[in-house]
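Input record (one chain):
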Amino acid sequence: MEVGGLLDRIRHCAMPDGTFECRGTWLQQEGEIRFAPDRPWLPFRAEQWLPHTGIEFRWEAWVRMAPLVRARVVDSFEGGRGMLTAHVLGFVPVARSRGPATDRGEAMRGLAELPWRPFAFREAPWLTWETVATNKLRAAFDDGSTQAAVEFDIDDEGHVLGGGAAARPRTVGKSMVETAWSGTLGEYRMFDQVRVPTIAEVTWHLREGPFTYWRCRITDFRALG
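The corresponding structure, as predicted from the sequence alone:
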């Protein structure tokens, strides 16, 4: 199938009544995150804002590090720049990431999460699309500063089942290591005339085996008027 046909299938599945005007989407998540294969899962609650078009996003989460210790984490791609910060107790900095590798990594997250703003399929600026296999699309982002790409798997009804890339920057100590990366999406539901996935899971593919490090469930979702 041609690119336009696959994009139309995705959009019709997500918005069966047709495109409507909104400023973007907002969602709440509950989930778990871990920082290494041998580390425990840590629960989090998060909010995320995604503008109507483009791949920008802002994710703000509270992660429970210990019974009485929480960390505030902000992950974003805004104004063409990626950023990750973490503060324990809301003000003690414990992590910060910026720079070209972070820009690309966050842009890849923004691409992978397009199913949470399906209006952006076809309409997003600086995006080009190509069919790479049956029911598989590649989205490439290039704003003149940051280049990123993600491939999507799509079923016959138009649900995006997940996406990934052969290499995404992964923080290892003070370095960034290019690592294969993928995510899965499922349990689609209708909210505000938009059908979106309500569960997600993300995995690094290490030499020693897959390392799933992030999983969530959507607890609320709104199209912003």
